Amino acid sequence: MKLAHKLLALTSISLSCSTLVQAQDLYLIIGQSNAAGRGELPVNPVALTGVQVLQGDSTFVPAFPNLNIHSSVRNTRQLAGFNLGYTFAERMRAANGNNIQLVVNARGGSAIRHWFPGFIDDADPLSYFDEAVRRLRAARTANPNAIFRGILWHQGESNRFADDYIGDITAFIALLRTEIGNVPFVAGQLARDREDSEPFNTNLLQLPSRVSNTAVVTSEGLATSDRTHYTAAASQTLGERYAEQMLILLAPSFDYTSWASLFPNIDLSELTADLDGDGIDNNSERIWGLNPNDAGSSNPYLSLPDTNRQFSYTRRNPLLSSLNYVIETSTDLITWNVDANAIQRITNTNASSIQTVSVSISTIPTNGKLFTRVVANTP
Ligand SMILES: [Ca+2]
Ligand SMILES: [Ca+2]
């Protein structure tokens, strides 16, 4: 009997951990003018509580709506208007209580090829790619306790008629992740006031199926001031939409952080490491309700299928893991089918949110043979 899991995304989670130090999450915002922000600024701008942005000297300052004012590649002739990161950060902070730090380094008018390593604009001696990486690293040096969570990318107005934007952005994401890590990457559609942006926007929707750990934010209903640039109100909505997508992509890692806090004296910082050397990586120990610090705890199956086709296993409470645990069966160990009529009964949930589940398989054996497994999957 084989155990398998796929780790993907979903929805918000409730956290039960208590932390002595205020946790901080770090995000990078880059791209073109709508990542810089062109919307009108409020007359009396207010700094967000619990949110900071990296300024030019690599220290953090309070976050006002004109976040791109701190970009090292900013075109100084252009307005640093209302930035989508403002409502994004506000929403992300509300989701799990962590304070937020931002690196905002957008450049108005930049095409995607301008964001590749090695490109230098005639008007600007700095590489956009290198600067994004440098400033992100400076933020991590300034606050080593912050966790780098994700990238917000809004770009494409200069590439509306590109033949292969998906190819370019795929290459760009790979290059960026090589430098700063495989974190969630959320892109946004262009404004719809220009009807000829529609092919670009439709094309962009392919991104999540082409590149793992990515999402696309819709531009539906968002107003512009000039057919290209979002208004302040639209930027606010856009930022909230980025947060919604980021939360979906981050659900597993948010839960991982919460779970790891149950083991304060051991190093569970790497999801794919195997701290206790039992062949089950730390993340799978979480998913299956195992002890990551005990090599004797490596098998979630408490009992194997009996003649009544019943067995039991352990898992983390799905309300926390944001995973669906489904029963699959096979008669040849090659083709697996979901046993949609299998009955899963939770017989216990302990104080560490580990559930014991009793399963009754509905599939009838073929020639006396039947294999089964539990798969942890996204809903
Ligand atoms: Ca292990
Ligand atoms: Ca273990």
What proportion strand?
15-25%
Number of strands: 15
Order of helices and strands: EEHEEHEHEHEHHEHHEEHEEEEE
- Bound ligands, each once: calcium ion
User: Looking at this structure, what is the CATH superfamily of the largest domain?
Assistant: SGNH hydrolase
- The gyration radius over C-alpha positions equals 23 Å
Indicate the overall shape: elongated
* Overall average residue pLDDT: 91
The profile of the biggest β sheet is: 7 strands, mixed
Enumerate the strands of the largest sheet in spatial order, edge to edge or round the barrel.
4-3-5-2-6-7-8
Structural account:
The protein folds into two domains: 19-260, SGNH hydrolase (Rossmann fold, 3-Layer(aba) Sandwich); 282-377, Sandwich (Immunoglobulin-like). It is an alpha/beta fold. The protein is 26% helix and 21% strand. Helix 4 (165-180) links the parallel strand 6 and strand 7 (185-188).
How is the secondary structure organized here?
Blueprint: E1 4-5, E2 24-31, H1 33-36, E3 51-54, E4 60-62, H2 85-96, E5 99-104, H3 128-142, E6 147-154, H4 165-180, E7 185-188, H5 198-204, H6 207-210, E8 214-217, H7 232-260, H8 282-287, E9 301-303, E10 310-316, H9 318-321, E11 324-330, E12 337-338, E13 343-349, E14 354-360, E15 371-377
Parallel strand pairs: 1-15, 2-5, 2-6, 3-5, 6-7, 7-8
Antiparallel strand pairs: 3-4, 9-10, 10-14, 11-12, 11-15, 13-14
One calcium ion binds next to loops.
Structure summary:
The protein folds into 2 domains: 19-260, SGNH hydrolase (Rossmann fold, 3-Layer(aba) Sandwich); 282-377, Immunoglobulin-like (Sandwich), CATH 2.60.40. Helices cover 26% and strands 21% of the residues. The chain has helices spanning 33-36, 85-96, 128-142, 165-180, 198-204, 207-210, 232-260, 282-287, 318-321; strands at residues 4-5, 24-31, 51-54, 60-62, 99-104, 147-154, 185-188, 214-217, 301-303, 310-316, 324-330, 337-338, 343-349, 354-360, 371-377.
